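This part of the workshop introduces the protein records we will be handling. Each record describes a single protein and holds just a pair of labelled lines. Instead of coordinates, the fold is spelled out as a row of discrete tokens. To make this concrete, we reproduce a full record directly below:
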Amino acid sequence: MLTAPTSSYSIAASGGSCAAGRGETKSFEGGIDIAAALTTAALEKRTGVPRTTIYFYIRQGLLPEPQRTATGRSLFGEQHVDILWKIGELKHRDYSLPEIKKALSRELEQARETGVDLEQLEMERMRSAIIEAASEEFETNGYKGTHVMAIIQKMDINPHIFYRYFPSKLDLLLECFKAATPLPLAGTARDVVDNTEIGENVVRGLASDNRWVHLSAALTEAVRAEGPILPDIAHRLAQAWDAIIINVLRDLERVRKPDALPLPVPEELLAYSMFGAYRSTTMRASWDERFTAEDLMRTQLFLFFAIIAAVSGEVDLGPRMEKFGPAVHEAAARVHGIPHAL
């Protein structure tokens, strides 16, 4: 088996040359790194081999056929890059084409039998790249200050490619928000959550990248800007937030005693309130250098343990809630339903 040299190397094929090693960072086509799915142009740039030579090798059986997309585009994989490098090495050793074909027979057979769906890989990579670029825009400029055309130009892609993945700016922001959650909470195994100390998930989440805090603020801005939200979008918004609070709800369930009375408030809203409080306190702390990141985390943890105390029965808030029940009822009647998001 040939091994790639660490220095730059040559792929001698009709004068074609390659100056990029197999282990180097993947090249970009139109500004997009599509990883294991390469168009003909990307394969040319990645290897330095002209497309005429690439298709000559395919006709000669020295290179596997590319996969074809529904639109007829050719897609190549990493195995094509490896085989092109090996062809170049063998040609450098004065192997003839039949000898190269024989020497690479095993690699060619394995490459032809691969079950990798390159079109799906390309789609997933493109979608992730758009989300990453858009997240930076939303985080920096907010919802109103972010423009779809700016993202399209930054990605150097055609508008129809963008809208194939995201029909609207709000849809895009929603996906960015879901991708930026502090932890993969909805995907966390139940036994993993049950074996952690109460409060550990809160601290771990606060210690992670706070992009989701900025994006949640952009999402609130979007709800205000867009006015009434369509039922489908509202449902997806709820699902996105539910994925964030699931571990908080699990922690509440863990501390609740079998004979505990039901809470006088919806647990989902109680869990949501923690994240709203963190966003507000983060904004307040950013205006005053007296506060530190540790102050923020300790305050959030304090609120969490206050909620835990109420849920576990350490503190009985029922009488106080009952005392103010009539006042709450009267105030809610004046609101006439759920108030518009602030």
Observations:
- Residues 1-116 form a domain with the Multidrug-efflux Transporter Regulator; Chain: A; Domain 2 fold (CATH 1.10.1660.10).
- Residues 1-35, 183-193 have pLDDT under 50 and may be disordered.
